[in-house]
């Protein structure tokens, strides 16, 4: 008994000493400032896909860090995260890919048990400096004698853990590092939670469909959409607000026939011609947008004329705005970009043969410096691109662009067929993907799903994403490259 008590006291003393050298929560936040600055969603306001990925990953990272600071926390699972950061030299030691919007996706897995190691792993994974962390580490050791104590190698005998019932931390860590979340094991662990949340959300889902159908019919709208993945309750609240505005000011909504309304972060009209209603704005701001619709429509006609003129100067190429590949721009912002580019082209008088590029498409971007060809065949052309360099690039890539466009059409058909087949095979109520998941990734995911037997999915809403998660309304999120 004396030996047992002595071991327990020694363990408590060791834990106190170890805590004296680990980072505090405030130290960890300070150490991660460069990382937060690089990935904060507010800096991705015009890039909805990247912003959504970073928002979701930050929530999961904050949960991981909070758990590390809980006293006696023992439950532990490796956490895989993906963040978008601005383009720079690639890190050969980290899994990363580059998006069309000029950012690179960095994926890494956290499996450490202390704040200091976790902070260093995050910074190193994103190729950020760790020099400032070393000073924090020194400052977090106020007792010099503790340092010499901790540096003494201590290895507990296995009989201690079998006798006391405590878990061996070394064994737990080794097991966690070996453990890799699999689709079947994750569904097995989370099926009950998802079903409970889904059943709770069903009345709200019906209410959402009713409100959306009634407003679309009353205003003769083409569609009602949301830019971000808000919960069902939040969406219902936004539709209720629009419904109240319709009742109070029905005369200002006469010009919305055939249009799409998108609830997003700011109000106005988008470059795609959709009516944007900022979710943080009050009815007064929405009313002004509806009152200005006739002027927006006039500007949109001028914008379409500019696109045609640019296409004529570039051999009949079609200028397009694709929401999935471009940042969210207002009509005014996009018009200014087009107008500046048109004036530059007109003055350069490039010798493109009429209709030589008919059937090809180009996207005009304001945040890139070099032209590129998207894998789906769209030319990504910077607004500041040198006309002579642009001419050479388009000519040299024209045939490849046509092949990519054909491949895109085939990919879209395959994706649609696989989604329908998967929904029927697994009796899903809904199968969809996040905007940041490409069609190629979706096709690969569905093909592998169809090879499995997954009774867990019957009646569920399945979202293909970059990570595992159960959303607040019961939707199951799984990574497209699940194991």
TrEMBL record:
GO terms for cellular component: mitochondrion. Residues 181-483 form the DUF4461 domain. It comes from the Eukaryota. Pfam families: DUF4460, DUF4461. Residues 19-128 form the DUF4460 domain. PANTHER family: T-CELL ACTIVATION INHIBITOR, MITOCHONDRIAL. This is TCAIM protein. It comes from Erythrocercus mccallii. The gene is Tcaim.
């Amino acid at each position: 008994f004396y030996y047992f008590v002595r071991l327990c006291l020694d363990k408590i003393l060791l834990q106190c000493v170890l805590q004296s050298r680990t980072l505090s929560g405030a130290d960890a936040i300070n150490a991660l400032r460069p990382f937060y600055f690089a990935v904060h969603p507010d800096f991705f306001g015009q890039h909805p896909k990247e912003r959504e990925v970073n928002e979701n990953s930050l929530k999961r990272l904050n949960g991981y860090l909070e758990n590390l600071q809980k006293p006696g926390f023992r439950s532990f699972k490796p956490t895989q995260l993906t963040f978008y950061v601005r383009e720079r030299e690639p890190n050969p030691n980290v899994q990363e890919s580059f998006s069309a919007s000029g950012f690179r996706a960095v994926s890494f897995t956290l499996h450490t048990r202390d704040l200091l190691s976790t902070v260093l792993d995050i910074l190193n994974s994103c190729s950020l400096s760790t020099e400032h962390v070393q000073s924090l580490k020194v400052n977090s050791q106020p007792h010099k004698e503790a340092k010499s104590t901790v540096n003494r190698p201590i290895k507990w005998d296995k009989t201690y853990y079998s006798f006391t019932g405590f878990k061996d931390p070394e064994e737990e860590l080794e097991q966690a590092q070996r453990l890799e979340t699999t689709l079947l094991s994750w569904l097995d662990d989370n099926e009950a939670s998802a079903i409970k949340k889904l059943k709770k959300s069903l009345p709200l889902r019906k209410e959402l469909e009713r409100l959306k159908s009634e407003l679309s019919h009353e205003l003769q709208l083409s569609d009602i959409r949301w830019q971000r993945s808000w919960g069902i309750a939040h969406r219902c609240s936004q539709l209720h607000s629009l419904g109240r505005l319709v009742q109070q000011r029905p005369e200002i909504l006469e010009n919305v026939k055939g249009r799409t309304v998108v609830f997003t972060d700011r109000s106005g009209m988008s470059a795609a011609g959709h009516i944007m209603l900022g979710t943080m704005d009050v009815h007064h701001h929405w009313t002004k947008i509806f009152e200005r619709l006739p002027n927006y429509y006039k500007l949109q006609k001028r914008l379409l004329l500019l696109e045609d003129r640019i296409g004529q100067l570039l051999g009949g190429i079609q200028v397009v705005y694709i929401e999935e590949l471009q940042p969210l721009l207002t009509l005014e912002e996009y018009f200014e970009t087009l107008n500046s580019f048109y004036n530059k082209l007109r003055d350069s008088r490039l010798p493109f043969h009429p209709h030589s590029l008919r059937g090809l498409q180009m996207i005009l971007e304001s945040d890139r410096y070099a032209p590129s060809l998207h894998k789906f065949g769209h030319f990504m052309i910077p607004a500041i691109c040198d006309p002579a360099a642009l001419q050479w690039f388009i000519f040299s890539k024209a045939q490849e662009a046509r092949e990519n466009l054909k491949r895109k059409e085939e990919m879209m058909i395959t994706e649609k067929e696989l989604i329908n087949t998967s929904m029927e095979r697994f009796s899903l109520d809904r199968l969809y993907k996040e905007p940041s998941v490409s069609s190629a990734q979706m096709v690969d995911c569905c093909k592998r799903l169809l090879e499995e037997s997954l009774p867990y999915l019957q009646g569920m809403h399945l979202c293909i994403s970059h990570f595992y998660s159960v959303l607040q309304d019961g939707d199951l999120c799984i990574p497209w490259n699940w194991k």
